């Protein structure tokens, strides 16, 4: 017990944190230097928080509003200290934030690591950003001192990166957080200055490289050696050099976006982006614009090259940074861009934003809405230009973020018009690339009236569909909808340039290049001839299907399952049932191929004894085959297997 009645507690890290720490401590990761970026970025976030809260509660600042981050290398103790006067942490917060992994990102990181069974490589750490724990890549001991505003006591947290940490109350004058890294031998040796994180030169460079655009000054005591000067200010030659210490701000904090476009190089944009948004890859596109008029603002937007690992998860925080006259207001403003453009990163700086505006008020702000509309337009225009001028780059974008646009189409019909020309799908006519609707339509022969599509889990399984055979023979292009959301997209669009979308597995095929009336007449004739048989099959399967039809879309397959135009499709039923929605069922129609030997066999069986067990088994088997072709498992696989086995045994007897 200390005098104040507080005890030092030793606590265990959560199991997952232990794993992560273990990885950090023993990592052979070559990019250890990013620990500094991570700690500085935490410090900057902590200052953002107090600055924002102090707008409504000025007392929190305790008279200390010169926000800064201080870096202090100390050769004597072999420590590197990073301090901020941000929001600090309470006892409970330290335990919650530092002792456990709350971030799903870190969990995902660990899972990826296990999957790879490898050491974390640059890409992985770059992508996930393991935050505070990265300190253990370079430090054998980490001490964290912190005090939240208004608290009389601070907290000291300490760990060697093994399974435990200690935590206790201590005195701490200044509000904020100080992190003291007792560097590992190899990172503090003066002989190996290149690797030493105590080297002034190295620290200066790292801050320029990773943290130049941090919005608060990152300061360090810089030792300057110089020639002594005489009374007139002239250097005294031959005299030994004298040392002078000067506090210097190492980051430029330059609001790049305020410069003229012509004066900014591609490299500067990229460096800025990576710095600000912690990406390790250059952005795919940069959109920088200045607008004056009803609202005045500058925007600098980026389309990333790669979707963050959690982009399609709920916990991904999208949003744009807001500034007013170059002063940061807030991060992740989500009201500016529509949901489907949530992959866009960047910032908007407008003198029309008020500094201490609340999120709620901001949402209603007219300026924000206006700016949002403009930004949406300019992003869409950029994408559309990319599609027409740099297809490979657009395809790269599409691979990463296409799904977001597709979700946009069906989430809100108003988006459909804006987005339909930006959509790409694989097709039977593009071996490995994809096609836009416009390209598809331009290839359509005049007599083709609809846009065909087929759904499946991948190219190969779509191409195997019995329904595809006839279309392939007639060289009709079919779009391959391989993503579960795709079918919802075409349903939402209904048509493109007045051409309806038509599933190869639904309703009438509308094959206009064959004489539809002729085909229909023939199918009708076959039906008449086999009416009793068709009805018998339907009766046998009545609890499973809505109808049985003579097919005119099959060639070599005996059966297929289709759905009619009245309800949802089979693939949609699939998706909905995956989402635990059993409400909607497709109207299943079994189509049988009258030209197939199985049909003849069935017919013969029916003629001899329509009530025989064999006929019933055949009907069941036929239906199950159709299910399997669609990728649906039979309800009773054992009975299916037994029936097949029975048939095989019979065949053996006959032979
Ligand atoms: P992240 O910063 O990505 O959330 P970290 O592991 O780096 O993950 O940090 C975990 C949490 O600890 C932060 O979210 C923050 O709440 C808290 N924290 C870290 N550094 C500081 C700091 N310098 N000042 C105040 N809080 C901090």
TrEMBL record:
Domain Histidine kinase/HSP90-like ATPase, residue spans: 31-187
GO cellular component annotations of the record: cytoplasm
Gene3D superfamilies registered for this protein in UniProt: 3.30.230.80, 3.40.50.11260, Heat shock protein 90, C-terminal domain (1.20.120.790), Histidine kinase-like ATPase, C-terminal domain (3.30.565.10)
SMART domains named in the record: HATPase_c
Pfam families: HATPase_c_3, HSP90
Keywords tagged on the record: ATP-binding, Chaperone, Cytoplasm, Nucleotide-binding, Stress response
Main location: cytoplasm
Nucleotide-binding in keyword set: yes
Subcellular localization: Cytoplasm
Family in the record: Belongs to the heat shock protein 90 family.
NCBIfam families xref list: PRK05218.1 (NF003555)
Protein name from the UniProt record: Chaperone protein HtpG
Gene: htpG_1
